[in-house]
UniProtKB/TrEMBL annotation:
GO terms for cellular component: cytoplasm. This is Urocanate hydratase. Residues 436-639 form the Urocanase C-terminal domain. GO terms for molecular function: urocanate hydratase activity. It comes from the Bacteria. Belongs to the urocanase family. Its EC number is 4.2.1.49.
Length: 661
């Protein structure tokens, strides 16, 4: 069968041959055995409902074995035979260009070059799933190939609920992931619901089909690193940045360090991931010996070299060794997946990667104790450095939250609302006041032609727009625009593309709308093919997360999730091609509600109309909320937005004299 025929077939009418387990692929760790015997029967019944009863006798023992061996039913047998990567949009079957664009994005999320655990349909973060199993993937792609522009596909935590009658301005796909009742959002609840096959952890851009590889966070990490050095008033040249994690999102760190111009040391326990990042040229060197690593760092600091060094081992050892050697760390953080601490997100010091994987599956309580012991030890070592002037910040991965739960010394001596920890979140110190409050966030686009020349053209158009904005922008946002111009000019030379021809930059509503309009005009003129717009959920408006995106909200509302819900509802009727809303993200299940969108630009007047309406709302609803929280930058930004759009009327806060209180 051709690729198009396989897509249109969906779940095959005859059982394909079982697939051999590929040990060369990076696989998800075994999940804990959490279901009772009755629940295991239910999990099997839930999995078998995708298939004709005539196949059940053969599939039951196979699915039972998967559940016992991996803790999940992935349906490996139904993994497609074709290569998994994003093809040019015109290679997909279908009746709707918008639906074809979504197929491009789904396959990009599952591409071997992009996905962390491709055979388990997990894109990043250890549990960020596009689908729960391969039947869901096959059925979804079939529905998309049949869809018209007057239908909407409803996605229920990876399961395609079905195609419903709709209209051309409605989203083609509506995605929800993990939207469980709040009382059932503990980590073990996710383990149970996911094992039953009824809910999934979509992370942020995994389950919303908008992940573009680590590039998606390189820009934000670059801005963070640059501004962290500005904060301590030091030039990045010769400065040392120490962190951990090379998988998924965290893999962006060494590349961002190189763009910023510092020395980066990033620890990683998984040799496969370290090898992938080295082969992708996202890290310059891999070291396995701490003494030699210290030597190499001193040499790089002395020469003011720009270099990224991966340490194949535990980051706790790095913090301790550098303290013992009196090696000055300028800025430090951690980007292990501590939102998922008990299932592969964080590996404890003192045992091998393989030992940890076995322990988390077979001795989960002991593994939890080891993780918490390791966190206490890591925080103690970090403290030895911060006492000497190291600027340490939480990188939004729930490091401080989980360290506090482990009893580590991270709580502030005199806590205030929103400032419970002795170390700041990077959003509190950097991204919130400098970017989000002013409306700047991670705008991204994908060239669906998969042509590098199309991406180069979009870079050129975006650069031109940014220069025009810079010439007319107020002083308050000059630095943000200047950083973006520097970023986009160097984007191609830094080899940032992994998977689809995609780009990201931090832009406000004005920048996003003007760049999108320039793209749509170029598509209309035949200069480039169709373009998908999107963003990371980690943005101005899409996410309510008290320990990350909204951690610089100090009016007591950071635990509310109204903004994320407003955002996705508003995007839905303002022209988004698809929308998504998730429970869980980079900080953990039950710790965040986050929403995203995708929008196809096809050169039409309809696309022009939609992009203006939707992109303006997608940014300004968040600025309005941040303004109401009395954030100075957001008050400035929303007043400016009201001056440019007479129909916008936002409630402004009145300030209270502190002396009266």
């Amino acid at each position: 069968m051709t690729f198009q025929e396989q897509i249109k077939q969906g779940i095959p009418n005859e059982l394909p041959q079982p697939k051999e387990y590929d040990y060369y692929i990076n696989h998800a760790p075994k999940r804990k055995d959490i279901l009772s015997d009755e629940e295991k029967k239910l999990a099997l019944k839930n999995a078998l409902r995708y298939f004709d009863p005539k196949f059940h006798t053969e599939l039951i023992p196979e699915f039972k074995q998967e559940l016992e061996q991996y803790g999940r039913i992935y349906m490996y047998r139904f993994r497609p035979d074709y290569e998994m990567y994003a093809r040019p949009i015109d290679e997909y079957p279908g009746n709707s260009l918008q639906a074809k664009a979504i197929m491009v994005m789904i396959q990009n999320n599952l591409s071997y070059a992009v996905a962390q655990h491709p055979h388990e349909l997990i894109t990043y973060g250890g549990n960020g799933a596009v689908f729960q199993n391969w039947a869901q993937y096959l059925l979804t792609m079939k529905y998309l190939s049949e869809m018209t522009d007057e239908q909407t596909l409803v996605m229920y935590s990876g399961h395609p609920l079905g195609l419903f009658p709709s209209h051309k301005d409605a989203p083609r796909v509506v995605v929800t992931n993990g939207m469980v009742i709040p009382n059932y959002s503990k980590p073990d609840d996710w383990e149970k619901f996911n094992a039953l096959g009824v809910s999934q952890y979509g992370q942020m851009t995994a389950g919303s089909y908008m992940y573009i590889g680590p590039q998606g966070i390189v820009h934000g990490t670059t801005i963070t690193v640059l501004n962290a050095f500005r904060k301590i008033k030091k030039d990045p040249k010769g400065g040392l940045f120490v962190t951990s994690g090379l998988g998924g999102m965290s893999g962006a760190q060494p590349k961002a360090g190189n763009i910023a111009g510092c020395v980066t040391v990033c620890a990683e326990v998984n040799p496969k991931i370290a090898k992938i990042r080295y082969e992708q040229k996202w890290v310059d060197e891999i070291h396995t010996n701490l003494d030699k690593l210290v030597e190499r760092v001193r040499e790089a600091q002395s020469a003011k070299e720009t270099v990224s060094l991966a340490y194949l081992g535990n980051v706790v050892e790095v913090w301790e060794k550098f303290a013992d050697e009196n090696l000055k760390i300028d800025i430090g953080s951690d980007q292990t997946s501590l939102h998922n601490p008990w299932a592969g997100g964080y590996y404890p010091v003192g045992q091998s990667f393989e030992e940890s994987n076995k322990m988390m599956a077979h001795q989960p309580q002991l593994f939890k104790e080891k993780v918490q012991e390791s966190l206490r030890r890591q925080v103690k070592a970090i403290g030895r450095h911060t006492e000497k002037g190291t600027y340490f910040f939480d990188y939004g991965n729930a490091f401080l939250l989980e360290a506090s739960r482990a009893g580590a010394d991270v709580l502030a001596a005199h806590p205030t609302i929103g400032k419970e920890f002795k170390y700041p979140s990077y959003v509190q110190d950097i991204m919130g006041p400098m970017c989000f409050d002013y409306g700047f966030g991670p705008f991204r686009w994908v060239c669906t032609s998969d042509k590098s020349e199309d991406l180069a053209k979009t870079d050129e158009l975006a650069t031109k727009v940014l220069h025009e904005i810079m010439d007319n922008s107020p002083e308050e946002i000059h630095q943000q625009v200047a950083d973006n111009i520097q970023w986009i000019k160097g984007a191609q030379e830094n080899n940032l593309v992994v998977g689809s021809q995609a780009r990201i930059l931090y832009a406000d509503a004005e920048g996003r709308i003007k760049i999108a309009k320039a793209f749509n005009e170029a598509i209309r003129n035949g200069e480039i093919g169709p373009v998908v717009l999107g963003r990371d959920h980690h943005d101005v408006s899409g996410t309510d997360s008290p320990y990350r995106e909204t951690s610089n909200i100090y009016d007591g509302s950071r635990f509310t999730a109204d903004m994320a819900i407003h955002n996705v509802i508003g995007d839905s009727f303002r022209g988004a091609t698809w929308v998504s809303i998730h429970n869980g993200g980079g900080v953990g299940w039950g710790e965040v509600i986050n929403g995203g969108f995708g929008m196809l630009l096809d050169g039409t007047d309809d696309a022009d109309r939609r992009l203006k309406s939707m992109l303006f709302w997608d940014v300004n609803n968040g600025i309005a909320r941040r303004n109401w929280a009395r954030n100075e930058g957001a008050i400035f930004a929303i007043k400016r937005a009201m001056e440019t759009e007479p129909k916008l009327k936002v409630t402004l806060p009145n300030m209270v004299d502190e002396n009266l209180l």
